[in-house]
Each structure stands twice: as C-alpha cells, then as structure tokens.
C-alpha cells in the first residue's frame, strides 16, 4: 500500500545543507497500524508531511497504492491526498464557523460525489464516531475528545487507504485520549491502515508496529507488543 | 459548487465583520465617487439620437460680416454663425431640398387658459418652430399630434403643450381642441407631448444643453403673424447697422437668430444638401452677401455636440480624479484582503491537505472577493444615488436627467465594483494559494 525506497529529505540554504531525513526504505501493508516515535526535532513531522504528500522529498521514490508519487503535479497530489489519505491533526483543525456536518463533508466537496452520496458518507462517518446526533452542532459546543472524533469522521468520510494521525491525543486528557485510541483501534480492525506519530510509548505499543526516527534515521523498533 | 463557495464567503464575511465591512465600505465610497462623476459625464455626452444622429444635421451658413468673423474657435480659426438670418432660413425652406426642415427660435409671453383671469397668467418661453420639430427630435405625443403643413404655411394659431403644462392647466386631461391664450392671442391645442428631455438637449448650444425643454410649441409663422417679439429671450447676433427695434426689423436684417436643422432619409442626401448650400452661397455672393472665406457647415448631431463641447474639460478631469480615488480605495481593499486571507492560512492548509487544489482555493477566495465587491457595489450604488440627488438640488440649472443613472449605468456600477474587487483580489488570492502547506496545519 505504502512503499518508500531510499526516500530522504534535506534542506539547502546558501551555505548549509541540513539532512532532515536520511535515506530510508519503508513498507506499510493494507490494514497495518504503525506508530512513529522519536524525540522532538528528530524528523517525525517531516516524515509525516512526506507520507501525506504535503512536502516534497529530496530523493528516492514513494509509491502509494503502487502509484509513483515522484514528480507528480500539485493537482495530482491533491487528488491523491483526497482519495487515499485521511488526516488527523493534534489540534483537530476543525473550522469553527462550519457545523459538524459541513466540517466532515469538506474533503468530499473536492471529489465528484453527488449531494446524496456526500450526505450518506458524512452521516455514516459521524455514526462511526458516535456523533451522528450532533451533526448541526458547532465545534466549540463539543469537548476536545468529541472534536477529535469529528476530525476522525472527516478523515474517514472519503474512505481513504490510510489515516495519517499526527499526535492525535496530544491535546487531550488521558481519559479522552484512551477513547480516541480505542476508536482508532476499532477503525484499524475494520481494515483501515493507520500511520500515527506519537510521543507516548504506551499509545505506540497499541499499534502493530513501531518505527522510530532519531536524528533523521528511521528504524524499526523491536519492542514487545502488549496491545 | 458555486453555492458552496458563496456560503463559505458569507461565513467568512460574518467571521470578521469589522474587516469585511471596512472592505465593503471602502469599495462603496470609491465606487460611489467614481460613478457620480461618470454618470454626469456619460449622461452629458451620450448620443441623444443614436438611430439617426448622422442623418439629422444643423445648417451653419457663413453670412457674416466680411470685415471680421463672428468669433474664433478653440483652435484659433475664424468661426461662422450657427444660426441663420430670416431670409436665409426662408430660402432654405422654400428650396425644400431636405426631407424635413426644423427652423426654430424662442420667445417669451404670458400664458393662461380661457377660464383664468389675466392676473393668473404666467410668463413662459415658447418654442417657435415647424411641425417636424417633434418627429425629427423624437418628442413623443400622448394626446393629438403636431400641427398641419397648412398651419406652418399660414401661421395658424395652434399650439402643442408639454405634459407638465397640460397637467397644470388641464389636470392632465386630453386638452386637444381646448384653447389657451398667449398674451392676448387665442391658440388652439393640437397636441400634448409626454415628458421629454433629451440629454444633452443637442439642438441648442452648450449653454442650454442641460436645461429643461420648453413647455410650449407654436408654428414659426404664427409668431411672425402675431408679432411676438421678446428681444431678451429671442437672442440674435448682428453686424452692420441694421435696426432691431421690431420683429420686422430683425426679419429683414443680416442678424442671425434662427437655428435650422434638417433631416435626410439617407446620409447620401446629406452630401447633396451640402452641395446645395454651396450653390446657394454662390448665388448670394453674386448679390454681395456671403463674402467671408470660411466654408459653410452641415453638422450632424455628434459633430455638433463635439463642436459645442458637450462634455467639459472639467468634467473629464473630474472623472480622472474620481477614478484615481477609486484606485486608491481599491489598493486599500487589496491590503485588507491580504490581511484577511493571510489570517486564513490555517484553513487553506487544511483544505489543501484534504484535497483542494490551488484552483479550488483561488475560486473560494475569488467568490469572497466577488461577494465583497457585490455588497460594496450595491451600497456604492445607493450612495451614488444619494450623491446625485444632492447634486440635483445643488445645481438646479442642470436638468435632473444629467444627474440620473440609467439602467445600464446602475448595472455598470455593480459590475465595476465586482470586477475591480476581483481584480485587486488577484494578488492576495495568488499569495493565499502559494502558502507552505505543512507550515500552516498547526495554525487553524
């Protein structure tokens, strides 16, 4: 599903070249739940941005569902992001002036769905996260955990190949965080792949695989799974 | 999808009401200022007879003093009179070489109905002309029609009134067949014309082009037969020592006082008529008249408006300043839009992340610019109407038509606001589409 070969990222200024990510290979299969861990500044966010086609990589090849993303135009990358990737952010990134329905519907607006199909998908997604009854509410009327559930519904609405979650529980208390992790596990068990960046090793251990990034080097971590 | 973007635009408008209103207000003020000056300039200079302006022409004959010209044109060349002597006007009428002839002058006298006493009479200016005046210049009748050919020839006491006067004297009823009294002469009403105000009033000189049309019309010959003579109103230019104490004096003098328009069925006939004018001049030279070298003129409506300077240099300058002001307003709006769109970097990042292309973002913000322009245009239109209304009160000597927007101008106002708002929104929109995706996703 996701295949990276020799992918690396460097930032070049007039005088300095900084290697943010050393060349690495990575394969993630359909249905896997992969946690990405590492200290701050290690390159986790850069890795996630590359995986989400939000940032260019400097070298290597990245295949998404067997499609080579190298050198794709902005328009094609937008279409791939829309169809293949569901984003979940630490700060939820809901638009405050839109109600829950409109927030979840947003990615579907950029695809050729009929109004009827959009409505069905939004309601299904909200149903999955347990918020179908609050579709007319606004984000500020919800708790942090509920807002993250809406963000997850938004990520799921387009039936993506995988979810990219960037510290999805980072802004939540432990009880809410547990709820979100439980929801992500359920979604994964229903067949959706998840790539999650986290600081929290307990949460990382709930994933099937752990990938560690340290000083720009990416490696598989051999930790006994307890989940 | 358009509805979706306009919904987003409206939500965005409500999210930052102060900033949005500032943008709308700035556009509205700029548009209002521009459209007030453009309206006055446009209405002053528009072609009042678009369907036949090249087939209707004014006759200028150079019957002036051989010693010196009547005046000098703006380019310094010697000018010729734009009015005719009575004898020349009658000669052209008798020759009957055009399809329609409209000689005219004006005089003033007291007007009342048969039932009103003398004290109730009001002084009015009367247009003294031919029966073709109305059809050539496009004045529409609501009752009756123009007078007959016989009335022109015999100088019958018949009269056409304006709707306003008909409303005043006869409460708007069909007054055809009724009579009114000019001074002490009884005139039978043959027609009533509807409200009619060509803008500019192209058939007179520039001093009177934006004044209201006269309310009464009688045959020129009837003025002569009834000896209506009002030197202050009639206005003539003389050279030499001719007496001008009576109407008969003026008629037999070399004074010019009659404006003379002609209409042709085709433009080709206009050239034949110009040749006829040259032949007439040659004939007159043989009897010692028309000794000046400057050529005659046969000026179409558009040429006459140009010659008279229907749009003044001041009004052109006014338009330039107003457009400059609009430009300054739009630059401010552009700056405000930059601020607004910059503040939406997080939303742009999110939308791009979930699949929006740069074009989608450009269309979304384009709709927002259109909405701001539309609201600014509508409010600007209202402000412009208020401004024009105030100008009408301040300058009563100009007819209200000059200060009135027609439908085209109203639509143009809103279109200008929307168009310029979109145009000046292009740079902020372009900047919004170029944001670094990954850097904005933590800032929503």
TrEMBL record, chain A:
* UniProt xrefs under PROSITE patterns: ABC_TRANSPORTER_1, ABC_TRANSPORTER_2
- The answer on whether this UniProt entry bears the keyword ATP-binding reads yes
Keywords (alphabetical) are: ATP-binding, Nucleotide-binding, Transport
Q: Does the keyword ATP-binding apply?
A: yes
This entry's Gene Ontology molecular function terms read: ATP binding; ATP hydrolysis activity; transmembrane transporter activity
Q: For the ABC transporter domain, which residue ranges apply? A: 2-227
Q: Name one Pfam family in it.
A: ABC_tran
Which protein, by its recorded name, is this? ABC transporter ATP-binding protein
Organism equals Pseudoalteromonas luteoviolacea
Write the lineage as a comma-separated list.
Answer: Bacteria, Pseudomonadati, Pseudomonadota, Gammaproteobacteria, Alteromonadales
UniProtKB/TrEMBL annotation, chain B:
Question: Can you say where in the cell this protein is located?
Answer: Cell membrane
Task: Name the residues that span the membrane.
Answer: 21-44, 317-342, 363-387, 407-430
A cellular component annotation (GO) from this entry? plasma membrane
One Gene Ontology MF term: transmembrane transporter activity
Task: Give the record's keywords alphabetically.
Answer: Cell membrane, Membrane, Transmembrane, Transmembrane helix
Q: Which domain of life is it from?
A: Bacteria
Q: Name one Pfam family in it.
A: MacB_PCD
| Residue intervals of the MacB-like periplasmic core domain | 20-206
Q: How does it sit in the membrane?
A: Multi-pass membrane protein
| Classification via InterPro entries | ABC3_permease_C, MacB_PCD, Macrolide_Exporter_MacB
Domain ABC3 transporter permease C-terminal, by residue range, is 319-436
User: What name goes with this protein?
Assistant: ABC transporter permease
- State the species of origin: Pseudoalteromonas luteoviolacea
